[in-house]
TrEMBL record, chain A:
InterPro entries: Acyl-CoA_DH_CS, Acyl-CoA_Oxase/DH_mid-dom, Acyl-CoA_Oxase/DH_mid-dom_sf, AcylCoA_DH/ox_N, AcylCoA_DH/ox_N_sf, AcylCoA_DH/oxidase_NM_dom_sf, Mycobact_Acyl-CoA_DH. Residues 135-230 form the Acyl-CoA oxidase/dehydrogenase middle domain. GO terms for cellular component: plasma membrane. GO terms for molecular function: acyl-CoA dehydrogenase activity; flavin adenine dinucleotide binding. Residues 19-131 form the Acyl-CoA dehydrogenase/oxidase N-terminal domain. Keywords: FAD, Flavoprotein, Oxidoreductase. This is Alkylation response protein AidB-like acyl-CoA dehydrogenase.
From TrEMBL, chain B:
Residues 3-91 form the Acyl-CoA dehydrogenase/oxidase N-terminal domain. It comes from Hephaestia caeni. Keywords: FAD, Flavoprotein, Oxidoreductase. Belongs to the acyl-CoA dehydrogenase family. Residues 165-281 form the Acyl-CoA dehydrogenase/oxidase C-terminal domain. This is Acyl-CoA dehydrogenase. It holds the Pfam family Acyl-CoA_dh_1. InterPro entries: AcylCo_DH-like_C, AcylCo_DH/oxidase_C, AcylCoA_DH/ox_N, AcylCoA_DH/ox_N_sf, AcylCoA_DH/oxidase_NM_dom_sf. Its cofactor is FAD. GO terms for molecular function: acyl-CoA dehydrogenase activity; flavin adenine dinucleotide binding.
Length: 390, 304
């Protein structure tokens, strides 16, 4: 058991972003500025919930999507460090990245790793151009944290498959072209992770119904998706039949390890720092709060770069990704709580409506930071298992 | 580095096992243990090769300092490594015997078991013999040195960070072993989800402390305010919370004298307070942030 704890300790070392990847920042910043210049901070605070298909296509045209995908499929052929730099710049600026977000982060690596040659040739170039938008079908009405209990079912139909069931809380389903869905192909929910498979489902197919769900801010980023006798060709299966669970777990390491797990409240933090400068507040208590938040941010960023280095080394850092996600989302949730107390602790100080709206938006969505991509409690269970707790 | 770490750990185990740690804390003669460590040559790990040291960087030496932290060593081995490197580089005489770094009025750790204290700043080091006049604090190995000079606080804080990272990783190992071993309600307590969640948080803090300490070590013997503050804030928070969680997991045995956990957690609390707590360093870093007025948190992070 000691040996297992040691694995995490020995592999996570500080790393440095290579100069050739750092050099991506300046030209990318110029491109981002064209789009975000007119956006109020509470719009920028939406970040990876902000949808702008034209912006995603522009990023694709300029080579900023599919950075880790091989050039023969239209990608950049670069390392995860390059992707880290690009994602960090996009999130720090509050650029609207939702349109390409899931395709670029999860679907492309999944298809590259597990897909057939035909699937790679069909989907990867389109993802790299920002023209194929993907969503992920995991949660169902009865399957949240207990993902292995999914009931949506694909049954053999001639050469292909017939799908029936329902997904829910599917981010960006309404705007997406395709869903990669985790469904049951054999057995029953009692068989748990055995008998699950992943399919690429064309959301324009007959029998697919998508209903948006409004969240507490009024945004409609997620949806419920119904499958009513949806017919799929044999080429819709991704990877091996019955291996869906292992594939999903590999995919979740990508979903959990990125810099987005420390940047969700960054627009609020930056807007608050600008506010302090504008009102000229620099007393000791304010300095203490600013210093504490910046120190945590800088440490988490180094942590995230260290995890990225494990991806560069070709590993699937599941436990490390759970560690950084739990620490990162705690920081993201502390930011609106602490800044809210700070601003309301100075009730006689001038406050812009923009900053107030940014504070409210971030405060309202903050609980979701430790729900999406695996809840805090589930992640801590993964970490405990990684420690060798029997 | 493996070829250095293993002999160094054996050295610490042999000359300062937990029974010796307790005896030295009760006032036993510490000179034999110190002589054995001094004779090994490790105290000059950071001294340049042309001055007959090992010529290693602080990042190279970090695993050794981590081992000192994990061993609950009651002697200023790591302080002396830093002091010898600073003195040698400044062309000053390097004394025999243990040296502690002193950076303010707050008690200086292990000053009772040191021959000198080093203060001043890297450009103007002051090596001062430990006089009996400097009052020892009863029941501790610490002294009030009332040192007015804070110039070494950055390097001292990064050193404490690395010691904390070492002790925390040992506390994690002890806690995992205990949770797997201790039975309650007919099964190991580690099977309880509430305990698993606590252990997971402990592990997060341990890895975080290790990253933060490495940020400090990477900045070398004269770390920037940014690096020292990031290191000490992260490890200070981790030290306090890790100690609390480990004691919660261990129950009553953890606060008994005979169980080794207390040797480590007492040091975690002490190192958290030494050379500026997380609150002190947050204030210092925050002043820099508010003066710099960076356009974003990212631009501040990239400016290092």
């Amino acid at each position: 058991m000691k040996a297992k704890a040691q694995i995490v300790f020995d592999t996570l070392e500080l790393s440095t972003l290579p100069a050739e990847d750092e050099s991506l920042r300046a030209p990318l910043r110029a491109l981002i500025a064209e789009t975000v210049v007119g956006l109020a901070p509470d719009r920028r605070a939406r970040s990876w919930q902000g949808f702008d298909a034209a912006f995603s296509r522009k990023l694709g045209a300029n080579g900023y999507l599919g950075l880790t995908i091989p050039p023969r499929y239209g990608g950049g052929g670069r390392s995860p460090f390059a992707r880290f730099v690009v994602v960090e710049e996009l999130l720090a600026a509050g650029a609207p990245v939702a349109a390409h977000w899931i395709a670029d982060r999860q679907s492309a690596p999944l298809i590259l790793r597990f897909g057939t040659e035909a699937q790679r040739e069909t989907f990867l170039p389109a993802i790299c151009n920002g023209e194929a938008l993907f969503c992920i079908g995991m949660s169902e009405p009865g399957s949240g944290s207990d993902l292995a209990s999914v009931r949506t079912r694909a049954e053999r139909e001639g050469e292909g498959w017939r799908v029936n069931g329902q997904k829910i809380w599917t981010t960006n389903a309404l705007h997406s072209d395709y869903m990669i869905a985790l469904v049951r192909t054999s057995g029953t929910p009692a068989d748990r992770s055995a008998g699950l498979s992943q399919f690429i489902i064309d959301l324009n197919a007959r029998g697919v119904t998508i209903r948006p769900i409004a969240d507490l801010t009024g945004d409609q980023h997620f949806a419920e998706v119904f499958f009513d006798d949806v017919l799929l060709g044999s080429d819709a299966l991704v990877g091996e039949e019955g291996q869906g669970w292992a594939q999903v777990n590999a995919e979740l390491a990508f979903e959990r390890s990125g810099p987005e797990r420390i940047y969700s409240s960054i627009v609020l933090l930056d807007t608050w720092l600008a506010h302090l400068g504008a009102v000229g507040r620099n007393d000791e208590a304010t300095a203490g709060l600013a210093g504490s938040l910046l120190a945590r941010f800088m440490a988490l960023r180094e942590f995230s770069i260290a995890v990225t280095a494990r991806l560069v080394a070709g590993e699937t850092p599941l436990v490390e990704a759970a560690l950084i996600k739990d620490l990162g989302t705690s920081f993201e949730q502390d930011v609106p709580a602490l800044i809210g107390d700070d601003l309301a602790g100075h009730p006689d100080e001038a406050l812009s409506a923009d900053l107030y709206r940014t504070l409210l938006y971030t405060t309202h969505v903050a609980p979701s930071f430790s729900l999406r991509g695996g809840t805090r409690e589930i992640l801590r269970g993964i970490i405990a298992r990684g420690l060798g707790i029997r | 580095m493996r070829e250095l770490i293993d002999p160094f750990k054996r050295l610490l185990d042999e000359h300062c096992p937990p029974v010796m740690v307790r005896e030295i804390e009760r006032g036993a003669d510490w000179r034999p243990a110190w002589s054995a460590i001094a004779e090994s040559g490790f105290l000059d790990a950071l001294v340049p090769e042309e001055m007959s040291g090992f010529g290693l960087s602080l990042t190279d030496v970090a695993p050794l300092i981590e081992a000192v932290g994990a061993s609950a060593m009651p002697l200023p081995v790591a302080d002396t490594m830093i002091a010898r490197a600073l003195l040698a580089r400044a062309g000053q005489t390097v004394p025999d015997g243990p040296v502690v770094l002193s950076t303010g009025s707050f008690p200086t750790l292990f000053a009772v078991v040191a021959d000198h204290f080093l203060t001043g700043d890297p450009g103007n080091l002051q090596l001062i013999p430990m006089t009996e006049a400097a009052s020892a604090i009863p029941g501790t190995l610490d002294r009030m040195l009332a040192c007015p000079n804070t110039g070494l606080r950055g390097i001292a804080a990064t050193l404490r960070s690395q010691l904390i990272a070492g002790a925390v990783s040992r506390v994690l190992d002890l806690s995992i072993a205990y949770a797997n071993d201790r039975q309650q309600f007919g099964k190991p307590i580690g099977r309880q989800q509430a305990v698993q969640q606590q252990l997971a948080v402990l592990a997060e803090l341990a890895v975080s402390a290790r990253i933060c300490a490495a940020i400090g070590m990477r900045a070398g013997l004269a770390p920037s305010l940014r690096a020292a503050a990031t290191a000490k804030i992260g490890t200070g928070i981790a030290a306090e919370r890790v100690a609390s969680i480990a004691h919660a997991i261990h129950g009553a045995i953890g606060i008994s004298e005979e169980f080794d956990l207390q040797l480590l957690t007492r040091r975690l609390y002490a190192w958290r307070l030494a050379d500026g707590s997380e609150g002190y360093w947050a204030g210092q870093l925050g002043k820099l942030v508010l003066d710099d007025r960076p356009v974003s948190a990212l631009s501040f992070a990239l400016a290092e």
